[in-house]
Amino acid sequence: MLVGALLTDETFGVAINQTATRPFISEKWMHGLNTTAYLNWIAANIAGAFFGKWITNPEKFGLDFALPAMFIGLLVLLMVSRSKIVIDMIVAISAVAIVVGVTLVSSASIGVIVATVFAATVGMVVEKWK
């Protein structure tokens, strides 16, 4: 229950990356990962509260892109650690094409939802077909 209560998107990404090379992740390992992530989050918030007043324009430094960049980094690490890079690239290209296409006729939020469902389906079909 504690592992699930402390789980975040980032720790899930790191944990799923570990399952690519190991058949089992211990509860102690997950608690260490989650605790480390929360301590880092607390330290980053304290630093942000202290130093944030000196950064008047975060976009100038690319700080508005920090969260998406972190998720892209986690995705790249996961893709590199797997031996299914071709399938992963097919899914990634499908997702980008779908989100761009749907966004042209609808909102970006709908585009992301549609791309997620269809790209995941494409990945499953390609993996089962191979």
From TrEMBL:
UniProt entry keywords in alphabetical sequence: Cell membrane, Membrane, Transmembrane, Transmembrane helix, Transport
Name of this protein: AzlC protein
Signal peptide stretch: none
Transmembrane residue ranges: 38-55, 61-78
GO CC terms of this entry: plasma membrane
GO terms of biological process kind: L-valine transmembrane transport
Source taxonomy: Bacteria, Bacillati, Bacillota, Bacilli, Bacillales
Organism: Paenibacillus taihuensis
Protein family per UniProt: Belongs to the AzlC family.
Subcellular locations according to the entry: Cell membrane
Bilayer topology term: Multi-pass membrane protein
Main location: membrane
Residue stretches in coiled coil: none
